[in-house]
Every structure is written in structure tokens, then in C-alpha cells.
Amino acid sequence: MKVLVCVTQTLEVSTYIELTPDGCAIDPAFATALVNEADLCAVEEALVLVEADGGGEVVLVSVGEEGAEQALRSALSLGPERAVRVWGEGVVLADTRSVAGALLACIESEAPDLVLTGVQSSDTGAQSVGPALAAMWGVACVPVGRRLSTSDSTLRLEREFEAGLVERVEVDLPALVTVQVGANTPRYGSFKDKMRAKKADISVVAPSTLPPSRITLTRMEAAPTGSGRSLELIEGGPSAVATRIMDLVREAQS
Amino acid sequence: MTRSLVLAEVVDGVLAPVTAQAVTAAVSLGGEVVLALVAQDPQSLVPDASLIGVTEIVTVAVPGSDRDHEQSLAAAAALVADVQPDQVIAGFTIRSSAFAAALGHKLDLGVITDAIAVYRDDSQNLVATRSIYAGRVRAHVVIDGARPGIVLVRPSIWEPADPGGSPVVRVLTVEIPTSRVRTIELVRPSGGVDLSSADVIFSIGRGAGSQENVANFAAMAAKLGVALGASRPIIDAGWLPAAHQVGQTGSTVKPRLYVAFGISGALHHLAGMQNSRTIVVVNSDRNAPLFDNADIGAIEDIHDVIEQLTLLA
Ligand SMILES: Cc1cc2nc3c(=O)[nH]c(=O)nc-3n(C[C@H](O)[C@H](O)[C@H](O)COP(=O)(O)OP(=O)(O)OC[C@H]3O[C@@H](n4cnc5c(N)ncnc54)[C@H](O)[C@@H]3O)c2cc1C
Predict the structure, then answer these.
(1) Which atom of ligand 1 is nearest to the CA of A120?
(2) Any A CB within 8 A of B153 CB
(3) Distance (Å) from the alpha carbon of A199 to chain B's nearest alpha carbon
(4) Both B58 and B155 in a single domain?
(5) What is the ipTM of this complex?
(6) CATH number, domain at B95?
(7) Residue A228 belongs to a domain
């Protein structure tokens, strides 16, 4: 079985931030770049599926430039065979449909049995790339999935809804699943895999036909601070904190 | 005049609260508001859906469950063709997110999910504001004015529209394809704890570090007579049963006091507890987003604080 896993880089921003001059991105000095958490769960899920299936290949793909390259190398260190980066003129990273359109180029050349994405990018959380990609590819999409297993060309898994509702479903392959955060504990990868990931040759493919972009990110701004609550910090160490919490508990219980 | 098509969120055959909020978002744009009810028995939802501001209700009877997103997609596409809206508005929920991007692709429309504001700019383009990077950044995204756009609105941002409207009701018949996603079994969350009625909740997050620490925390909470909540990683690790999970895919709680230990404050967690009366956060990282949403905070190692609390319990 061949599983293609889409990964992306996400940013964890500090409390104080500055934007790039065009006002459409975070100044990198105020952010830490990481591989998207849900994507690592998707990679782990893919590795386990292929092992259980008795062989095959896990291929990674990411859309973008330097950040995509870094995300691919980090994710390769878990053990997937290969990685492909998609980049070319006209890709709009702020438009999930454009990203999905770029990913489609890789699906066309790799012809996977299954495509996994993370349920969402932890930083911008649109939950759209997977569903858009499935629609473009013309296969069924199962969002917010976990516990994947295959027999012949049928995929079984659980999908989640609000309030703890879980539906066990099956679909015929090829299909696309967006893997839920925490679906598993991603492996660390061996030292050998880490070295291999560092040196891996990551090929770059150009998107074929991109969908027209119907949305434009015009500007960003730092959010007004405060959620309507004003924070009071408890000083004085753990025992002072515990005492204060106990007072609050007694007050709320009375 | 502008026209909004609001796609109702139906959960287990009942209208979900986000529907009335989406109606408010649509009403704020002015013009007509058409509310679509896609359900097995949509007529039964008409009384609850007769909200002030809704000009028309269109019902679509479908054979499958409200979890069938391929059915939702087919119905939504037919509704857009029939209603010819300037914008489609629905809640940012797992059910809507499952088909919104596919709808955008099928009809070549722009999609913006998880919006916290919608408005028209001076050029009459539809603009949605998104809250991203753990709520620290606002992004303004414009849908090209020449075409309709799809906007999914974050739950609990808009006030719900009031009942008591008297919209016209009409039926739309839509051919629904059989879903490629086949249900095997539905598993409802196991009961046991009822967090929704607790006055005080102590909630533990990934900062707990081990199952043993969670067990000690649970014992301390029990001794104090407070309810035990958790963020999702604790449930994923199998350290507590799912009934303890607070958040979007767990319980929504509103206690007098919510104390979070080692929880970062992801949007999905906030969704379940942000309406608590007093929120206390204990976290060693001052940068944790939950501090932005709390009344009282302590930058401490939770193990030290839990140890002190155990002495006082
Ligand atoms: C569709 C979807 C639905 C979801 N539904 C939910 C949901 O219902 N509920 C939910 O909670 N999550 C949900 N999530 C997951 C959510 O996005 C976060 O991943 C999760 O809430 C993080 O949990 P956490 O804060 O415990 O862990 P983390 O984000 O890892 O945070 C742990 C925190 O603990 C602190 N910490 C660590 N050690 C210590 C220590 N010794 N002392 C003090 N502090 C310490 C760290 O500084 C950090 O801030 C959902 C995700 C998706 C995609």
C-alpha cells in the first residue's frame, strides 16, 4: 500500500509579536517553527498502516519553500521513505484551496491508495486542505479520523464529532482522511532515520493546474489583548497558590 | 439587496445552538436571510428555526443522518443553485467543515472558516476576520465581490437570534447520492461524570506528565469535592475516561470556578470552558494562551502546587 501524507510547518508565536512589512505574516523573530502536531500523528498512522499491510511506502508531501523543506525533513526522521515538495508560481499559501490544488499535482504523479493530512494546522486552524483536496481528487473524505485499518481495499476508521460522539465508518480506497490530533503517539525515529532525513534528496515538483484563488488575505494585526478578563497573578510560591485556590474553592462551594 | 443562505446545523435531528448565532451573523449583513433545514424530518425543525430576522425557510428532506457530509454537500450545492445567495453562512463545526471546502471547490466559491466577524468593506466585498495563532493575531480575509462566498462562523461569538419570527416556509427536493462513507456503528460517549452541573472543576492537562500524577490529582479533587476535568491529551493517553474531557469534542462547562493545571489553552479547549465564571490557570509557561483568558494565574510547576493542595485537602 502506498500512503501519501501531507505535512506543513506551523508557527508558535510569542505573546508579543510583530508582523512582516506587508502586514500579512508573522515576523519570524517572534515565532518558533514546528511540524504541525496533527501531521505527525498522520505520519505515525501511515507508518503503522503500511507495516500492518505487510509493506508498501509512505511518501511525504508539503507545499511551500524553506518552511516546507524543514517540515519534510523533520517528518522524514520518523521513517517515511521519501518526500516531495510542491512549489511554483501562483501558489497562494494563505488560501487552503490553492494549497490543496498544489498537492493534487503530487497525487497525480504518485497515485497513492490513501492520502492523509492532519485535521488542521495548529496555528491557523482552517480544517480545509484535506476536504478540499479530496474533492479535487474525486475521492471520499473522512475528517477527524483515528484508528485506521485496512483489509483489501477497504479502509475502516473512527471519526469524531463534537461532544464525544464517535462514528465507526468504512470507505473504499482510494480515499483521504484528516487525522485527529492525539490519534497516536508519533515515534521519535531512529538515529539512522534522523541522519537519512538530514541528507535526503527532496524533489521539487511544480503544481499542474491551480484552482483560481477566490479569497485574499489582506492584512493581519495583533489581536486586542484581553478577553474581557483581566489577569491577576498569584505570587509567593506554590503554597501561596494552593492557599488561594482553596479559598476560591470554598467560596464557590458555599 | 444582499441575500444570505444560512445552513442550519442539525445534531441528532435537533437544531444546534450555532444555527441561531449564524442567523445573527447573516442578519448583520442586511438583506434577506434564507435558512436551510437539511434533515430527515426538516418540518419538525421549522418552529425552532422560525427566528427573528429569517425571511424564508427552505426545507430539504434527506434520507441519511446529519453526519453524512456527502449528503450535506449535495443538498448545499442544490440550495445555492436554488437560492442564489451572495453569501453562504454556517457554523464552524465538524459537520460543516466536512463539506464546506468541497462545496467551495464544486461551485468555485471562496471559503473562509472559523470567522469571528463578517462585514462588507467599502467596495462591497465580503470580509471575514479570523482569530489565528492561538488568538494572538487577527487576519482579515476578503472574498472577491464578484462571486458569493462561504463563511463558517465560530460558535459562541454571535448572540443567538431570538425565536418568534414568521418566515415563509418552502420545500426543495434534492436528489441525494449514496454516501461513499458507510456507517458501521455509532458510539455515544459513556456517562459517569456530569461536568455540566459542577460548581467547581479542577482540570488537568498534558503538563500532568504521567498516569500516576493524574491518579493523584484525581484523588485530591475527590477529597475536595470538586469535579474532575481534563484536556484531550489526557483522554488520548487513556489516563482518564472520555467523560472527563472538556472542550469542543468533550463537554461544555460553565462552573463558578474552573482551575486548569498544565493546560495550554488551545481554541478547542477554550470552546468548552471559556464561559466559566472564574478561570484560574496554573502553568509554568507564562506564554501559554490560557493566561490570556483567565482571571487568576500562577506561573508555577503544577506538581508543586498539587502537592501543596494535597496537604490542604
Ligand atoms: C477537531 C479538534 C477537536 C479538539 N477537541 C478538543 C477538546 O474537546 N478538548 C481539548 O482539550 N482539546 C481538544 N483538541 C486538542 C487541542 O487542539 C489541544 O491539542 C489540546 O487541548 C492540548 O491539551 P493541553 O493543553 O493539555 O496540552 P499542551 O498544549 O501540550 O499544553 C500543556 C501545557 O502544560 C504546561 N506544562 C507542562 N508541564 C508543566 C508543569 N510541570 N507545570 C506547569 N505547567 C506545565 C505547558 O507549559 C503547556 O502550556 C481538539 C483538537 C482538534 C483538532
Answers:
(1) 53
(2) no
(3) 31
(4) yes
(5) 0.95
(6) 3.40.50.620
(7) no
